[in-house]
Design brief:
single chain; Gyrase A, domain 2; 4-stranded antiparallel beta sheet; 4-stranded mixed beta sheet; PxpB; Carboxyltransferase domain-containing protein; Cyclophilin-like_dom_sf
Length: 205
């Protein structure tokens, strides 16, 4: 049985609902199959529980057949694994510890011992929402968002953790900083963290 439903989105696109599957994995499968078949793709964008697929010519595609083939194919494996070095010196680390009832080092240990997955990008280019946050580390967004959050800030909010790829406003709880650039304009694509990647954090300093 299909784990998705597709509906038209604009002239050339489809929005695929995937409540019981991994959107990043489906997006990778669509890219691979379209490349193999020579099907023209404009973009494939995974979300929290959806995938937006935009074709050059949707008339040349039977979306249900395409998705069924992707669904039946074996998983292609990880997009990649990234380890990010972090100084856990964030201004909200003490508050996160208080909210969770943990010591600050316990917060750090849980964050560094967990393997996260980049589910989707949003909010700003290169801002990857990482899932897999342990229940003990789930804290609400700040009631007073900051007008400026420095690039490289490592943050928690609800069921997600993330790294701000550049200077942005934001209301997440800031627990650390990294010097690793995660948005590099000379790269293609510029975002270092891509949906489907496995991400780990390592304490330094």
């Amino acid at each position: 049985m299909a784990r998705w439903t597709a509906r038209r989105a604009g002239e050339n696109g489809y929005l695929v609902d995937v409540p019981d599957a991994d959107p990043a994995q489906l997006a990778d499968g669509v890219r691979g199959l379209c490349q193999e078949r020579g099907i023209g793709l404009v973009e494939v964008v995974p979300g929290m529980s959806t995938v937006l697929i935009v074709f050059q010519d949707p008339r040349a595609v039977q979306i249900e057949t395409l998705l069924a083939e992707v669904d039946a194919a074996p998983a292609s494996g990880e997009v990649g694994t990234l380890t990010i070095d972090v100084q856990y010196d964030g201004p909200d680390l003490a508050e996160v510890a208080a909210l969770t009832g943990l010591a600050e080092q316990q917060v750090i240990d849980l964050h560094t011992q967990t393997e996260f997955r980049a589910a989707f990008s949003g909010f700003a280019p290169g801002f990857a929402y990482l899932t897999g946050v342990p229940q003990q580390l789930r804290v609400p967004r700040r009631p007073d968002p900051r007008p400026v959050v420095p690039a490289g800030s490592v943050a928690l909010a609800d069921e997600f953790t993330a790294v701000y790829p550049k200077r942005l406003p934001g209301g997440w709880q800031l627990i650390g900083t990294t010097q690793q650039p995660l948005w590099i304009m000379r790269r293609n694509p510029p975002a270092v963290i891509r949906p489907g990647m496995t991400v780990r954090f390592r304490q330094v300093g």
